[in-house]
Amino acid sequence: MKTIFEVLGYIASVSVLSGVLLFSIRALIKSKINSYFSTALENHKHDLSLIAEHTRFDYQRKIHDFGLYSSKRHEYYPELYGLILRMHRNIRSFYFHSTVPTGLLLSKNVFTDYLSKFKISAERIDLILHLWEKGPDSLEEIKKQIKDAKLLEIFEEVNIANDYCFNYDLFFSERVSNLLEEIFLNVYRLMEIIKKEQDDYTEEDGQYIHSNYEKLIELKNVIKDELSKGHYDNKL
């Protein structure tokens, strides 16, 4: 028979082995858990790094795009305003001074200098001077030829301004685009008005001139405001 000491020794050895085994199992589990979370943490860090890099790149791209967009606006807005302003001034000038001062017709040299101020074709100038040489009986035809030449010049300016707006509308804010639409609606109405004889102008006709001037001032203020603030909207 085994002695009590042998039994106790056996029990002790089994306990030690069980403890060692349990410790090993715990250590293995802990190692696996640490490895899992370490891998997960590294993957998470990698994902965060990719997100941060994408965000940084997207931000830099937007900053770059905004810089280009803003630069183009600073280039196009002053040119736009200049075209609209000249168009309005010439329409207004024609509205109030469409007739040819009779005194200019007394001297051919003075009359020729007067004609040179306008974009009149050489053929039309030759025709007008030929009419001048015919004397006072050609006065009405001379006035008609000069008026037609002035109207043609204004029509060309309107077309140039309209084409500019069409070509670069992508860079204009919604407020500017809406104002331009209102201005050109007025201009098209004014183009019909100034075709009439000056004596046939009505008080309502003059209101279109005033309305267009107010829209021009509003356009100027909006452009100045946007350029000073670096305006940025959904058109980009």
Mean pLDDT: 78
Termini distance?
97 Å
Rounded Rg: 42 Å
Portion in beta strands: under 5%
Helix content: over 70%
SSE pattern: HHHHHH
User: What shape does the CA trace take?
Assistant: rod-shaped
Structural class: mainly alpha
Counting H and I runs of at least 4 residues, what is the number of helices?
6
Query: How many domains is the backbone divided into?
Result: 2
Low-confidence runs:
57-66
Major pleated sheet: none
Strand segment tally: 0
Structure described in brief:
Keywords: Membrane, Transmembrane, Transmembrane helix. With about 240 residues, the chain is an all-alpha fold.
Write the layout of secondary structure elements.
Elements: H1 4-96, H2 108-115, H3 122-134, H4 139-168, H5 174-193, H6 203-229
Give a written overview of the molecule.
It is a single chain. By secondary structure, this protein is mainly alpha-helical. It has two domains: 1-41; 75-229. Helix content is 81%, strand content 0%. The protein has six helices and no strands. It has helices at 4-96, 108-115, 122-134, 139-168, 174-193, 203-229. Helix 3 (122-134) packs antiparallel against helix 4 and helix 5 runs antiparallel to helix 6 (203-229). The protein starts with a helix and ends in a 7-residue tail after the last helix. Mean pLDDT is 78; it is low at 57-66. Keywords: Membrane, Transmembrane, Transmembrane helix.
